[in-house]
What we know:
- By secondary structure, the protein is mainly α.
- The protein has helices at about 5-30, 35-60, 85-95, 100-130, 140-160, 165-190, 200-225, 250, 270-300, 305-325, 330-360.
- About 70% of the residues lie in helices and about 0% in strands.
Amino acid sequence: MLIDWTPLLQVALLGAAVAAVPLTWWHLRAAKGSAAARLRALTVLTAFLTFDLIAFGAFTRLTDSGLGCPDWPGCYGQASPVGAQAHIAAEQAARPTGPVTHGKAWVEMIHRYLAAGVGVLCIVLCVQNWRLRAGGVGRPGLAALTLGWVVLQGAFGALTVTMKLFPAIVSLHLLFGIGLLLLLVVQAEALQPRPLQASSALRAGLWVLLAAVVLQVSLGGWVSTNYAVLACDEFPSCRGGSLWPDADFAGGFTLWRELGTDGRGGLLSFAALIAIHLAHRVGAFVVLAGLVWAGLRLRREGLTRPAAWLWGLAAWQFLSGLSNVVLGWPLVAALAHTSGAAALLAVLVSLLARLHAGRRIRYA
């Protein structure tokens, strides 16, 4: 049977139309700058839109719109919900509160258009880096890695739909999205180094902190994709006044299983959901302590602005995470928490890149 590539091509064209707007702005805004300045402006713009895409991806997940169009890349074989109205109406009539509604279909397809737009920007960024490689401005290796990364991210986006929100795939989709953002941050810092200097102990501590934050974000993604946020509905206790109720960590962290199942043909127990939530809660206190330490050390070494960023984002994450629990997982708090996690990782990676640049200057 021949593959119908029409929906993919149509979605790609819509992505190009989405990308045309920021590309036009970039072309007009940075027209008179140097080659390095223009390339960095394009990189920062792509990073900014990638951050927006991460936030909109969280909105798609949190509004249960991930299966708003149950096929990929189109919607019932069409490039937009307009052409799929009859299919959507039939599904919505059969299951009014189900995963397919007109509103959810539009949210899902807008997410795909935005993702395609970011993909087009990454293609342009790769081309620009290769064009400028002879002058020592471009970073073609990093740009090629970024382009390959966004293709892999698109594949995970397709699997998210075709595997019906399989928790491990959805979590990896989130992590790869944040990874794309971090790659773009590294490129932006490489194009215009802003060196900072710090002790070797502080640099090592920040690397450990980065690893801890990555692990904590992974746990947060696992909480969200398994809908375990409200497994603990109290703070500082978890549930029923207990700090540590019965928890099934083996069941909660069986990674390869379908949504809501235990991997052995049964339903995922509530004790497993509690385990998932508790792991993230414990990790939050570890990361919070690490951020407090990092801020103190940064201030001691005269780096007050990075310290303020880390402390501000630590407070943001604590308050938004607490709001998710005590206010019953409101959409605004959930979006703030996911966006804050991406921002925290971006700030940490940017700081480490600047410290690396400072170290190279010191030993040059």
